[in-house]
Amino acid sequence: MKALALIFRRELALAWSGGGGPLLALGFYAAMTTLIPLAIDPSPQRLSVIAAGVAWVVLALASLLSLERMFERDFEDGALDLLALGPAPLEAVAAVKCLAHWVAAGAPLALASPLAAAALGAPLDLALLVVATAAIGGLAFAFVGGLGAALALGSRRGGLVIAVIVLPLISPPVILGGGALSAYQAGLPWLTGFLLLIAYTLAASAACPLVMAAACRNALS
Amino acid sequence: MISGLTVAGLALTRGERRLFAGFDLRLAAGEAVALTGANGAGKTSLLRAVAGFIAPAAGEIAFAGPAGPLEADDARRADLHLLGHQDGLKGARLAGDELAFQARWTGGDAAGLAAAVATLGLQPLLGLAVRHLSAGQRRRLALARLVASPRALWLLDEPFAPLDARHRALFGELMAAHLARGGLVLAAVHDPLPIPARMVELVA
Q1: Which residue is closest to B99 within chain A, CA to CA?
Q2: Total domain count for chain A?
Q3: Does the predicted interface ipTM exceed a cut of 0.95?
Q4: What is the DSSP letter of B94?
Q5: Which of A214, B32, B102, B196 has the least CB density, counted as fewest CB within 10 Å?
């Protein structure tokens, strides 16, 4: 556990150093939320219908931003060798990397998401559910994103490869989270979608570290 | 604790290319082996195979402790240092932070860290960003984890390349002390090691 705490702290420090990852994601989030009403139709009636969903999709895209650095940087400079030869298995290292990624980028985005939804005209009583779905879905994005980042190791144009791998895999949480939000907004039962979102996140956090570790070993060989 | 390394009938391939086959090596506690061979002979690959990164095409790599054979991956994670061409140091971070991470991650404590800083004269570098260090300074920083965290088997890939004469001599002394404590050194080199070592040549 002490070793994993070490990795966690280092990952957080790395996320903030060199480009301020979280600020970048938040800036992208703000820019997209501003851009979409400009492109569609800024009338409040129309926007408020799609507000929660749009906030969610933009959140998913924003969480893709800094994925490329998650494993690639350690792979390029040899730190992945060191991580593989430490006291904790690579699976645990990969899981901690995803958690740190979520704390650095996913959680700030989740906190910003009700603001974005409200700015697009979503009703205020939706805010709590927006934060909850964004935080839980964001954790799934982090694990699935880490999987994409590990599989793309060593490939040229890694960012694009990651997006192609990750986007299909994050469609279930987008459907479930967005669905729960629109159901809540329409006064329909929303709990099932929310619980399924939690289930997806748990499944991703259990399965992805195994794949990430295997992909890292493959890249190192 | 690793006190013996046995490589038997090892064959390595990279892509379609067979690097070498039928390679045998025994390394006991207190011994150093200088691994030589032409460029591309597979020195780095052999070190990475011993570290567990490259799966052998044939043959075995086994670790033994004083009480008998060790489970290979446990032994690697607990008792092996690999110092390769890449040092794993992050340019944007302070040298002190990176050193502390590398040393602690590989099992070093505060006393070991202080000893490494003192031995390698790193104190003036600790407050600098890694990207502002020279190649030799980076290498010294990476070397420090060998001193800070006691692991028995050192796998060194061209460890002297960027070091100046004074630090080459110092590293030689560190290796000699490591061997005297019962450590093992397997180093891929082009120039002879500054310590008594068996020469083993890799040929295709």
Answers
A1: A10
A2: 1
A3: no
A4: B
A5: B196
